[in-house]
Amino acid sequence: MPDNQIMQNNLDLAGLRNQDHRAFEGLVEKYHRQMVIVARAIIGDSLAEEVVQEAWVSIYSALPAFEGRSSIKTWIYTIVSNQAKTRLRKESRLVSMNDMAEDIPSYLKNERFNDKGGWSSPPPLWDTDSPENLLENDQLKHCIEKTLELLPTVQKSVFLLRDIEQQPLAEICNILHISNSNVRVSLHRARIKLMQVIDKYQETGQC
Length: 207
Hints:
This protein is mainly α. It has ten helices and no strands. It has helices at residues 3-8, 13-17, 21-43, 45-62, 72-90, 131-135, 138-150, 153-164, 169-176, 180-204. Helix 3 (21-43) crosses helix 5, helix 7 runs antiparallel to helix 10 (180-204) and helix 8 (153-164) crosses helix 10.
């Protein structure tokens, strides 16, 4: 990333390469929350903060060698992603990030979503006049959070990065080291699962 683009993002590339503490504090302030989300998606809540702290140590040490071939955000996300996956292997809970088919299976082609990932038509039982009221329901929030925790690692990572953090698909590919089609498949599966949970809650009041 060019130096002037870094400056536009309120980051001092020269200062970061020189390991200037004020510049580094600005980097931490800008990206720490997003890094926790990336780590949490891969390794879970209990170890996410620890992994991020370890990642910041690695980032600080590596800053003098940062060449700017990718954006600093992508570089940082890649480091924390790798750190989380390394820790996950140590915990003997690694789930392969590349075990899905390249093409979207026909049974996943759900008519609810259009080609851009938006609704073709809303779920029939949803109160479409006040979706915010539906999602403010504490019990439904609990159901959604529980479902997210049970999703396969890739699906959860992609969903959080795309639908919560609003990261571009290309950025998610770089962070998780998976193909664009794998990202789309994972996102589709996660969305379908969450929609099923919401539909069930609307019908039964239970997860």
